[in-house]
Amino acid sequence: MAVESASWVTQLVDTNPVVGDPVGEGDDHLRMIKTVLKNSFPSTSTAAIVPNMSGQSGKYLTTNGTDASWGTVSAGDPAGTAVAMAIALGG
């Protein structure tokens, strides 16, 4: 069977490669998986795309344009509250 073609995670065929595929096509599958991962999770940073969520209750996810991090909403900070609400609402 020919090596599958995919650019996004949703395009991967979970039954490939099949048992009868030539071993020599294994490197082609690995390169395709690397391309899919880079396209699906783009980042110029070496940090995790989504930072660790442990202990981050009540915080919001923010970015400096390169790295994602957790921000704290202050009670006296209406702008921060607006940002957190916009993120929660998908805005």
Molecular structure report:
This protein is of the alpha+beta class and 91 residues long. It folds into 2 domains: 9-40; 47-91, no CATH class. It has 2 helices and 2 strands. It has helices at residues 26-40, 78-88, and strands at residues 59-63, 68-72. Strands 1-2 form a two-stranded antiparallel ribbon. Strand 1 (59-63) and strand 2 (68-72) form a beta hairpin. The longest helix has 15 residues, at 26-40. The model has no long low-confidence stretch (mean pLDDT 78).
Tell me briefly what this model is.
The chain has 91 residues and is an alpha+beta fold. 29% of the residues lie in helices and 11% in strands.
Question: Strands, helices and their partners?
Answer:
Layout: H1 26-40, E1 59-63, E2 68-72, H2 78-88
Antiparallel strand pairs: 1-2
Q: Based on helices, strands and strand pairing, what is the structural class?
A: alpha+beta
First-last Cα distance? 44 Å
Counted up, domains total 2
Q: Could you give a short account of the major beta sheet? A: 2 strands, antiparallel
Q: What is the rounded Rg?
A: 20 Å
